[in-house]
Amino acid sequence: MTEKTKAAETIIENAITGAGKRIFNYIATAIFIGWLVFGALGYFLSGTYEKDTTDGYKRSNLKLRTDYGTGCQYLESIGGTITPRLGYGGIHIGCNENNSGADL
Question: Which strands make up the sheet holding 63-66, listed edge to edge?
Fold first, then answer.
């Protein structure tokens, strides 16, 4: 093998190696950007970014439930436990004047 042939082979090998690295970097960048886009879409489409009146500074993960017969409001935890939603004076929030439920 002559020196010219070795030099030509080295140039070709370096070009192939460099191209492979560039392709790998493009693919890795595309995967990362895709991951970010799908993560953002999932976050916004799921509605978890929205706050309701049960939230303070951070998301409380409580669901607000209303008894349509009495109008009384309840808070439901992730586990399904329900508790009355109380105001400052310990009064059940949202209840109609006749909250006995007798008219159901």
Answer: 63-66, 73-76, 82-84
Contact 95, 66 (CB under 8 A): no
Closest CA to 104 of 79, 68, 76, 59: 68
CB atoms within 10 A of CB 63: 14
Query: Model's pTM, two decimal places?
Result: 0.42
Query: For every one of its 104 residues, what pLDDT tens digit does the chain have, with 9 covering 90 and above?
Result: 677 677 777 777 777 777 778 888 888 899 999 999 998 888 777 665 566 666 666 667 788 888 888 889 999 988 889 999 888 888 888 887 765 444 43
Chain mean position to CA 54: 19
Residue 41, token pair as written in the block:
């879409």
Give the containing element (helix H, strand E) for 21: helix 3-46
Q: Reduce the DSSP state of residue 82 to 3 states and report it.
A: strand
> Please, which contacts does 48-53 make with residues 24 or more away whose CB atoms are closer than 8 Å?
none
